[in-house]
Amino acid sequence: MAEVHTKSRRIIDEQGKVLFLETATVLVDGDEVKVNSERRVSRCPTCGSRLDKVQSLGRCWECDKEVCTNCGIKAACCGRTLCEEHRHLSLLNNERIAVCREHAPVVADRQELYDSVLLFNQKLKEQEQRHAAELRQREMKLKEASLAFQRALGSRRQVVQEAVTRERLALEHARVRMDQLRTLAPNASRLLGAYRSGALSQRRR
Question: How far apart are CA 8 and CA 24, in angstroms?
């Protein structure tokens, strides 16, 4: 009596669609063995990719074509499924993204705003750098002027100090001279009186 053995392997997606089916039937009739195998693979109708190897994305929002990850994409702006023909590549924050026709102008406006803000920040940074350089230059000039003033003031103080010292020495010298004159004045007066008395006496003779 013949024996029949069947073995199958299948891959099913979340919606229950069979993506891959392989069935092997082995018929054993005495010493005779027959093997019949069948394989069915679901493919993307747009690009022909095997759906057990790539993910099906659904239908294009624009043309209703069924696409997979090899021939379609999800729009970054709204998550709509788009085929290669109907996806629009736009630049947002210096990153290239795929968008739908409806949101492409909005993304372009956002990129324009981003560019203007970036340019404004760059100009502001350059302005800050210029102001910082000017401030450093002014501080250096102020320090140089302060040092020059301190040197001039020190030199002036030295001149004044020397003049004061000279005046003190002159005053001290004048005081010593006055003391000498005060000491010598009485003796000089007596000598002068004696000289006058002697002179008168000689004239009388």
Answer: 6
